[in-house]
Amino acid sequence: MDIESVMGELRNVVESQLRIAGSDPAVAAAGEAVLAALEPAMHRVAFDLAEQAAAEVSAQLPTSSVDVVLSDGQPMLVVRPSTEAVKISTEDCDARMTVRLPEDLKGDLEAAASEFGDSVNAFVVRALSGSADAFRKSSRSTFEGTVET
Q1: 131/103 Cα distance (integer angstroms)
Q2: Do 134 and 60 touch, CB atoms closer than 8 A?
């Protein structure tokens, strides 16, 4: 995120409004004071928006986590593979469901399950569980964490 470009836009808007007042030094001084007062607030708003965006994106990516980090004083979203594995026991799976799917998808599922050392059933149960969990998380309108400025 580029906070400085947003601050530049704000400065341009305020300066164009100040031009309407003509060349009154008191108005120009007041405008500069307003801009100086708004800058820290705008930085805080940018960090809050980055935090909310990270929470939203993280809720929609069940296999990843999204963090807000500072890079050269600018907030940046970093997506990492989740360290939290979906824990599900396939031992007590009593419910059954028949799913019709394309042959190539079936092959992809078998290959992916094999790569993870899982049965197709265990792989699909974990994937569905992660997707259902992500859906539940994304339906919430709250987020956790803070960014201190």
Answers
A1: 22
A2: yes
Domain ranges of the chain: 3-138
DSSP label at residue 64: E
Beta partners for 65?
A: 80
Site of tokens 């808007």: 13
The three-point CA angle 114-88-141 to 5° equals: 115
Task: Describe the crossing of helices 25-60 and 3-20 by its angle, rounded to 10 degrees.
Answer: 150
Q: How far is Cα 61 from Cα 79, in angstroms, rounded to an integer?
A: 9
Which amino acid, one-letter code, is at 37?
A
103, 111 Cβ separation under 8 angstroms: no
Bridge partners of 69, per DSSP, are 76
Please give the backbone phi and psi of residue 76, each rounded to the nearest 5 degrees, phi first.
-140, 140
Give phi and psi for 69, each to the nearest 5: -125, 155
| Least confidently predicted of 11-20, 49-58, 73-82, 126-135 | 126-135
Global confidence as pTM: 0.47
pLDDT in tens, 93-146: 778 888 899 999 999 999 988 988 888 888 888 778 766 665 655 555 444 555
